[in-house]
Amino acid sequence: ARFEKAIAADPSYSRAYLGLALARTALLDSAGAVEACARGLAIRPDWPEMVSCAASAFEAADRIDDAIRFVRDAATRSPSNEVLRSKLAFLLNYASCDASELFAAHRAYRDGVPRAPQETQRRDPAPERPLRIGVVSGDLRTHSVGYFAEPIFRTKPAGDALVVFSTLPTSDRDAMTARFRSLSDAWVESSILDDRGLDAALRAQEIDVLVALS
């Protein structure tokens, strides 16, 4: 209601359309969210955040092909935009596309992300020593990723350490989160860390192998 009032007061206020679209998506009003996105994009064409929001609305409506078409068209017009490249690579995981197309989309995203030079952290190369395995994820909870990951945590090689870097504020009320914490050797709350802070946390934990589960 607040966003609709803002739009009524100033129909050119583009961010109000984004807020309205996000609110409608949260209320499971996918058609309303798509409509709000269309109105916002009429004011700011090729707005990456709004395109991504519209794709999420299509996705929520189980219109994956429409979401992919929408994002691919926008990414073609803005080939250097990493938000759109990321969204396209993500959506293709849910489509019946050729594996080579999926691979190409992920590689295109990788190639478009700027890389800052980082100092390499040398680790002890002794082949018999235990490994410290880091897992970065916001989904080690009651979530599809959690169901896939829990068996991996339970079959960790003896002696190796699992260190979780949780990128979502941890809920003490989630039973699966509690199980993941009990299966981990360390749990680093990382939701408030920026890239530099996360890099420092990874180095402080002396991680050998890092796995991204997001």
Q: Can you describe this structure?
A:
With 214 residues, this protein is of the alpha/beta class. The protein is built from ten helices and four strands. It has helices spanning 2-9, 14-26, 30-43, 48-60, 64-77, 82-92, 99-112, 144-154, 175-183, 195-204; strands at 132-137, 161-166, 186-189, 209-212. The chain has a four-stranded parallel β-sheet with strand order 3-2-1-4, covered by helices on one side. β2, α9 and β3 (186-189) form a beta-alpha-beta unit. The longest helix is centred in the N-terminal third of the chain and has 14 residues, at 30-43. It starts with a helix and ends with a strand. The model has no long low-confidence stretch (mean pLDDT 91).
